[in-house]
Amino acid sequence: MWAALLFATADTLGALTATLLVIYPLFDVACAVVDIRAARTNGQPVRALYANIALSALTGIGLAVAATSGIPAVLRVWGAWAITAGIVQLVVGIARRHLGGQWAMIASGGISTLAGASFIAQAGKDGASLTSLAGYAFLGGVFFLVSALRLRGEPGR
User: Fold this and answer.
1) Which of 27, 105, 110, 156 is the most exposed place for a label (fewest CB within 10 A)?
2) Integer CA distances (angstroms), 60 to 57, 102, 106, in order
3) Which of 91, 93, 111 is nearest to 102 (CA)?
4) Does some domain include residue 9?
5) Does residue 76 lie within any of the structural domains?
6) Per residue in 76-134, pLDDT tens?
7) Would residue 157 count as lying in a domain?
């Protein structure tokens, strides 16, 4: 739903679009908090998850500010976040690979890192649009769902 709304409003940067942009990293914060609770229960390291929370919270603030400057600024902030969050996902996924079901997180982290560089490059082009962010978010949602379904109901995971 989020990706569809962003796709529908991707050519302009109005209040709805700005709100959608800020909500996305805040949702990421909430997911990381849930992940930390589960990881602590199972004795898994959580340091990278705390880094993810900090990055995503700062990104929410950065996107709110960038939205006042235009689409290129939003693409730069989102791109920087995608790169750093992607690296964090890679680290967490690789550290947890012994649990199984982490391939989606590892793939998502790699794709996120590459996509982030792409968003920053797009920011320098005329006619920049937020359409690619909608596609990125949709694909991220698919990976998130695959991970959740894969790990659902498996004790200790």
Assistant:
1) 156
2) 5, 26, 23
3) 93
4) yes
5) yes
6) 999 999 999 899 888 888 887 777 667 777 888 899 999 999 999 999 888 888 998 98
7) no
